[in-house]
From TrEMBL:
<feature type="transmembrane region" description="Helical">
    <location>
        <begin position="116"/>
        <end position="137"/>
    </location>
</feature>
<keyword id="KW-0408">Iron</keyword>
<keyword id="KW-0350">Heme biosynthesis</keyword>
<keyword id="KW-0472">Membrane</keyword>
<feature type="transmembrane region" description="Helical">
    <location>
        <begin position="259"/>
        <end position="278"/>
    </location>
</feature>
<keyword id="KW-0560">Oxidoreductase</keyword>
<feature type="transmembrane region" description="Helical">
    <location>
        <begin position="183"/>
        <end position="207"/>
    </location>
</feature>
<feature type="transmembrane region" description="Helical">
    <location>
        <begin position="227"/>
        <end position="247"/>
    </location>
</feature>
<keyword id="KW-1003">Cell membrane</keyword>
<keyword id="KW-0479">Metal-binding</keyword>
<protein>
    <submittedName>
        <fullName>Protein required for cytochrome oxidase assembly</fullName>
    </submittedName>
</protein>
<comment type="pathway">
    <text>Porphyrin-containing compound metabolism.</text>
</comment>
<dbReference type="InterPro" id="IPR050450">
    <property type="entry name" value="COX15/CtaA_HemeA_synthase"/>
</dbReference>
<feature type="transmembrane region" description="Helical">
    <location>
        <begin position="87"/>
        <end position="104"/>
    </location>
</feature>
<dbReference type="InterPro" id="IPR003780">
    <property type="entry name" value="COX15/CtaA_fam"/>
</dbReference>
<dbReference type="Pfam" id="PF02628">
    <property type="entry name" value="COX15-CtaA"/>
</dbReference>
<keyword id="KW-1015">Disulfide bond</keyword>
Length: 313
């Protein structure tokens, strides 16, 4: 029997063979991770908008002595909504573990790409701990806001990971001109105050996350809304400029599609934002606005990534 045959019969070789076979699922698992990262923002919004933030009074248990929501005559629906959100966090954790294993075990890829595969798992663990702190501090608005911002960052990282999976590992090469690159980077920077100010507006508004504990950020909601709207209009102006330059310079189709998609998301977000403001912030529209915020982060990330390409090493 040859040395090669002996090596192939070892447990380590079988393990590597199993992982190599399993990696055909990497792309769908990365898609599932991105969808779940966006989904957790929506379910987290549902917890807040239904006043279910303290539906489970403690953490990691739902109630003292019980880990799951249980029915009894005094039970309200809040407990089930909060526990449902926690359950989705568990599902997201399982997906994040799968992502970490599939990406980290791919020794054919660059170290940077493989380290990126650990980001969802680290993020989910961070969110779980932060969620427990939020409950124990009775929905402190600053902590609730940080909870959303971490989720938004995880959406961006998850889309980056999905995009990197489809690329090679050679150094990036720009596919658009210097002006488009400058405008694209500006959009990435402007997206930060757009999202953060949106979170501040929510923290200062009427949806505190619980019907009895209703802490708010000590800020003027109307003033914060104006600042948020101004940041969005600036974002739109730069995005339109980006699209005009892309069209005039014959940018690749992928770049133009990413810009048009981001413009559609932004305009839809603006429309929802104005309607919800002038109709008293109905819960459904606020929830859609939170979904739109996640899509805005993903769309901005996609646009920036479309400006370069990587070949296989």
């Amino acid at each position: 029997m040859s040395t090669q045959q002996v090596d192939e019969s070892t447990p380590a070789a079988h393990e590597q063979g199993f992982l190599a076979s399993a990696r055909r699922w990497t792309h769908p698992v990365l898609v599932a991770n991105l969808v779940a990262q966006i989904g957790i923002i929506v379910t987290g919004g549902a917890v807040r908008l239904t006043g279910s933030g303290l539906g489970c009074s403690t953490w990691p248990q739902c109630e003292p002595g019980q880990f799951t929501a249980k029915f009894h005559p005094e039970t309200s629906y809040h407990q089930y909504i909060e526990f449902g959100n926690r359950t989705l966090t568990g599902v997201l954790g399982v997906i994040a573990v799968a992502v970490a294993i599939l990406v980290w075990s791919d020794k054919s890829r660059s170290t940077g790409y493989r380290w990126l595969g650990l980001a969802p798992l680290i993020g989910v663990a961070t969110q779980a701990v932060l969620g427990g702190i939020v409950v124990r501090f009775h929905l402190d608005p600053a902590l609730v806001s940080l909870h959303f911002i971490v989720s938004a960052a995880l959406v961006a990282l998850s889309l980056l990971l999905l995009h990197r999976h489809a690329e090679g590992d050679a150094p990036p090469v720009a596919v658009v001109g210097p002006l488009n690159r400058a405008l694209g980077r500006t959009l990435a920077v402007l997206a930060v105050p757009v999202v953060v100010l949106g979170v501040v507006v929510t923290g200062a508004g009427p949806h505190g996350g619980d019907d009895e504990v209703a802490y708010r950020l000590a800020l003027d909601p109307a003033l914060m809304t104006r600042f948020h709207a101004a940041s969005v209009w600036l974002f739109v102006a730069v995005l339109v400029a980006y699209l005009v330059v892309a069209l005039r310079t014959g940018a690749p189709a992928a770049v133009r599609r990413a810009a048009w998609l981001l413009l559609a998301i932004t305009l839809a977000q603006g429309a929802i934002g104005y309607v919800q403001y002038f109709t008293g912030l109905p819960e459904l529209l606020v929830g859609l606005h939170m979904l739109g915020a996640a899509l805005l982060v993903a769309g901005t990330t996609r646009l920036v990534l479309s400006m370069r390409t990587r070949a296989a090493v």
